[in-house]
Design a protein that fits this description.
450 residues, Methylamine Dehydrogenase, Chain H, Immunoglobulin-like, 2 domains, five-stranded antiparallel sheet, 2 helices, 3% helix, globular
Length: 450
């Protein structure tokens, strides 16, 4: 059954109304409750989006793509879509659905550009689909696929779905897979054999499934995303440093040991209050974009979105409308993010926003001195953007604060007082550079004054 509709994006004047700190509506049609997945298909030059996008004409959830000009509806499912990818000449979608455009399917379907087809019988939801080394993998909370025991992970052989190395973890929730150093890694939750907990991440190595180091520790921890990046494996999800993990929300594996990404992520000023939850990661121009529920990356205020280049974290202008960040992708050098609210300044954004520039506000290199000196760790400058005051958390009280404009002209030079605040209410709106000098380190960041 063929169905494809095209929906014009909002007019330019509507776009300009949304522009706050560079964020505007992505112009998605219909009523959206949540965007679960974004996929930049570089073959067709399209950005796919799906989740809970209600098409009122069919009372179904639409599967959309954006071509840089218009949003197009290619299918309407009876329940949520969780994953999208391209495999050969087809678009593969996965989720919780049983019909797309009236075609009977079982949590996974195939679209050839014209029609939808059933693509296997999965007896539970399919959380994710991913192509690794030209092989298509499906992951989720299913146990059986086409009458074969698979336990949450299956691969397409060209004519049928098959189990993956007899994956033995009965009842496992597999959320992602990645190949690193030639071995297959799986991340998720409830990886048990009998009463032995394999702590949410395993690898198939030397002919057997094995734990990865000590795994991800903590009873409420789990792995959402795996991504090979710059000769390391990045692991992300709900990860607690307080549960004896290396990082909060994200950490990396080099094949033999765990380490943090700089000073990592955290929520609020007290990392023990709650763990960051990284929902999504994407690589663009050899840089790693990270989206989820967190407030800081290293010491930068980075509400729900940050970038890691292998050495330093960078932040972007943020708004409270990004109450949570479920997904992120980069299309035509524009950041698209599934955000947590329906409106921005009373204008509808339909839970999908885009950032007009890839230029970060600022970046922070975690130096050797900072790593070796506990007093330097946890230093924070917030909020950013700011209106009246900047707060300097965990800096020396006699630190020198230097504020310059984009032309390099000195605007403010002062010493940080004991209250660790700087009055910026008299500054004009715009971008400034803040340099903080103490006896132990120097930090420079970009400030957006509202």
């Amino acid at each position: 059954m063929k169905l494809k509709t095209s929906i014009a994006i909002f007019a330019l004047t509507a776009k300009m109304a949304f522009a706050q700190n560079g964020w505007i509506s992505a112009g998605t049609p219909y009523t959206t409750l949540q965007i679960n997945c974004l996929f930049n298909d570089t073959i067709s030059d399209r950005l796919y989006a799906a989740g809970q996008v209600l098409n009122p004409s069919f009372s179904k959830l639409a599967i959309l793509y954006y071509d840089g000009v218009t949003w197009n509806n290619i299918g309407n499912a009876d329940n949520q879509t969780r994953g999208i990818t391209r495999f050969n000449n087809d678009i593969i979608v996965s989720g919780f659905f049983s019909k797309i455009n009236g075609v009977d399917v079982n949590n996974i379907a195939r679209y050839d550009g014209t029609n939808w087809y059933s693509f296997g019988n999965f007896n539970g939801f399919v959380w994710n689909v991913k192509v690794l080394n030209d092989t298509l993998y499906a992951m989720g909370a299913f146990s059986m696929v086409d009458s074969l025991l698979c336990n949450g992970i299956a691969k397409w052989t060209g004519s049928s779905w098959k189990p993956v190395f007899s994956f033995p973890y009965v009842g496992a929730y597999v959320y992602d897979a990645e190949i690193y150093q030639g071995d297959l890694y799986l991340g998720g939750n409830s990886f048990y054999i009998g009463t032995t907990d394999y702590n949410d991440i395993v690898v198939y190595k030397n002919g057997a499934w094995q734990m990865v180091g000590n795994g991800i520790l903590g009873g409420t921890s789990f792995v959402d995303k795996l991504l090979a990046y710059k000769n390391e494996l990045i692991i992300a999800g709900i990860i607690w440093r307080s549960a004896s993990n290396t990082g909060d929300g994200i950490q990396k594996w080099n094949g033999s040991s765990w380490s943090d990404l700089g000073m990592g992520l955290r929520t609020g000023t007290n990392p023990n209050n709650s763990a960051p939850h990284v929902h999504d990661m994407k690589i663009h121009n050899n840089e790693l974009y990270v989206a989820g529920v967190f407030d800081y990356a290293d010491s930068l205020y980075a509400k729900h979105l940050a970038k890691w280049d292998g050495e330093k974290w960078c932040n972007f202008p943020t708004q409270d409308f990004i109450a949570t960040n479920l997904v992120v992708d980069i299309y035509h050098d524009t950041i698209f993010t599934g955000c947590g609210y329906d409106t921005l300044n009373s204008d509808t954004i339909n839970y999908l926003a885009k950032m007009l520039s890839l230029q970060p506000l600022g970046c922070r290199v975690t130096g050797i001195d900072e790593k070796q000196n506990n007093e330097a760790e946890g230093m924070v400058v917030y909020p950013n953007p700011a209106n009246e005051y900047l707060n300097f958390l965990h800096f020396e009280s006699n630190s020198t604060i230097i504020v310059t404009d984009m032309a390099g002209q000195l605007i403010i030079k002062t010493n940080l007082g004991s209250n660790q605040k700087l009055d910026i209410s008299n500054l004009s709106s715009g971008i400034y550079f803040i340099r903080v000098q103490s006896s132990k380190n120097v930090q420079t960041l970009k400030l957006l004054k509202q």
